[in-house]
Amino acid sequence: MIDYISGVFSSASKPNTSEGQESTEMQPQAMPKKFEGKVVLVTGAGVGIGQDLALEFGKDGAFLALQSQESLNETEKMLVSVGVPSEKVLKIVASNKDSDYASKIIKETAKKFGKIDVLINNLEHEGLPVGGDPNSIDSLDYLFKHHLRNAVELTQFALPYLQKSKGNVVSISGCSSTKASASFPFEATINAALDMFTKSYADKYGYLGVRINTVNPSYVRTEPRDPMARRCSIIAVNQLVEKYAMDNCSLKRVGSARDVSRIVVFLASEGASYVTGANWLVDGGTSLCSQQWYRH
């Protein structure tokens, strides 16, 4: 509820003065936090880009609704360590395979905080199913459901709240949307569809004060979700992928979650109040390189 949010602020609204006296000392003025009093919903907040986004928005004063398919305990510990009180955080465990995935997340957020100012569509999927052929129809169906459709549904369910708050949406797409990909044709197709959905809805709802943008990263280094994975062959696989990523990147380094999250936070802020329908590349120049990672 809105009353819930105002109540959290009221406890710190008065200066600490002696009884019956007014404070005459000049107190240093803290810089206002960009998202103070704002409700920010971040999906896929249990690891990687989503986890870093939770930290950045939390440090900037936001009330947080965080979704993950698995535990959010690690993210909560990190938030507490940087001074974000637990009462400002709503944890939502929801599988993106559930038919009510989007509606559940939006309803729980609105029930807790009474409004939504920012929606971050950081769609959480582990790539293609193990052993999946990236050229198969099954892969297309998988990516359509878990990446595109979930982003569309979350945006649609959030729009009534975003219209009231004059809020905004930032979706995580990918730089593969910018050029043909012989290696991952359907991932490129789905990302391109998400980019065009973003442009279309930005045009459709802009007159209501709602901004909608995407951020399009390339390969980003993140920690494996499963601690056991850090001690097995996935490390060797990631090292190989990172080598290809650097070879096909103008800046010759692998991106980090922070590289992406800083741009997302900017687009969600008032500093980007005249930006909508944009697809922001955060790829170190990967989209400028013509070489494919590998060809089937």
Automatic annotation (TrEMBL):
Q: Where is the composition biased (Polar residues)?
A: 8-27
Q: Which domain of life is it from?
A: Eukaryota
Q: Where is this region: Disordered?
A: 1-30
Q: What is the protein name stated in its UniProt record? A: Enoyl-(Acyl carrier protein) reductase domain-containing protein
